[in-house]
Amino acid sequence: MSKVAVVYWSGTGNTEAMAEAVADGARAKGADVSLMNCSDFSPDMLSSYDAVAFGCPAMGAEVLEEDEFEPMFSACLGHLNGKKIALFGSYGWGDGEWMRTWEDTCRDAGAILVCDSVICQEAPDDEVNESCQALGQALTN
After folding, report:
1. Beta strand ranges found along 17-141 (DSSP E)
2. CA-to-CA distance for 97 and 138, rounded, in angstroms?
3. What is this structure's pTM?
């Protein structure tokens, strides 16, 4: 059985809803899933999981949330080489630049992106929820 962590930050609840759908998808494939806020996750926990989904909305000038999520993620970055991960998040405006930058950062660190990232503008709809569930399932392969 795969152990999967779904680690997120959410200000409005949109990315949290996405995280729950990711966790549901991984559970549907039989994974042991830990769903947690980024404040409850640290780099030393990475080795306890076969795969990790990170979720964060775009903030400000299309950047990761800077007070809680970005410091946690930056601390994890040096430990992602060879790690199976997936990314997701919501945004209110822009074109998804924050996600493309985030993906590049992860690839440069040697992380293995197991599937296309999932982004949505504002609240997730049924199509986005299905994509998030598929993302969770991809983490269990």
Report:
1. 32-37, 51-55, 84-91, 112-113, 118-121
2. 23
3. 0.96
